[in-house]
Design brief:
Order of helices and strands: HHH
Number of strands: 0
Radius of gyration: 20 Å
Structural class: mainly alpha
Helix content: 55-70%
Strand content: under 5%
Distance between the termini: 62 Å
């Protein structure tokens, strides 16, 4: 019975682009980066390796993985700039 309910919920849910849930502005990434530094420093102060690792992971996500994911999952390419040569 639960499989039928889950199938009905899944099939009627609106499709969401994977890139739509990631923010496009810089603010959240800078906040994640700074938060990663704070967590990492706190991990060093309290000598907690898992907290240091969490801070490093946050910094890595903010600087590499999330911006790359936005570029890869974005459906619409950026419009060409003003200096693009004409095809003919």
């Amino acid at each position: 019975m639960s499989r039928i309910v889950l199938h009905l919920l899944w099939s009627t849910a609106p499709a969401v682009r994977p890139g739509a849930i990631l923010p496009e502005e810089m603010g959240p990434y800078v906040a994640l980066l700074l938060g990663g530094f704070v967590v990492g420093v706190a991990g060093h102060v309290f000598r907690l390796r898992w907290m240091v690792a969490l801070g490093i992971l946050m910094i890595f996500l903010a600087t590499f993985l999330l911006p790359v994911a936005i570029n890869l999952l974005e459906d619409d390419p950026d419009p060409p700039g003003p200096n693009v040569p004409r095809p003919y």
